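Thread: Newbie trying to understand structure tokens

Hi all, I'm a second-year student working on a class project, and my supervisor (Dr. K.) asked me to get a predicted structure for one chain before our next meeting. I've only ever worked with sequences, so writing a 3D structure as a token string is new to me. If someone could post the tokens and maybe explain what I'm looking at, I'd be very grateful. Here's the chain:
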Amino acid sequence: MDVLIHLFVGLHIIGIAALLGGFLTQMKAMGKGTARFVPAMLHGALTMLVTGVALVGLNQADGSTVSTVKIGVKLALLIVILGLVYVKRDDETVDKRLFGLVGLLTVANIFIAVLWT
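---
Reply by user tm_fold:
Sure, no problem. This is what the structure looks like when written as tokens:
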């Protein structure tokens, strides 16, 4: 079971890397007002959602305790991120504030995962 959990943790990290990497590649464009949500951001957020749900199930099946409040907060942030990216994915440009909000929520999600024990 540990190998499977570690596999999904790795896939979860790849998802966050795609989401954050997509955001960071558009930072220069954000300064010019031409930033857009790239497909990597949508795919990364979807990967995080699927692997995160799988990780909760695997950890509970393994007998580990799962902080439902922490998972709930992370899931809420991810749903907001996913909703914004999905709705605005075809727009040529996205408002700076909206694009910055997605980046802020992504970073907040990372810090919640790492620091909330």
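A couple of things are worth pointing out once you decode it. DSSP finds five helices and no strands in the chain. The chain has a mean pLDDT of 96. Feel free to ask follow-ups in this thread.
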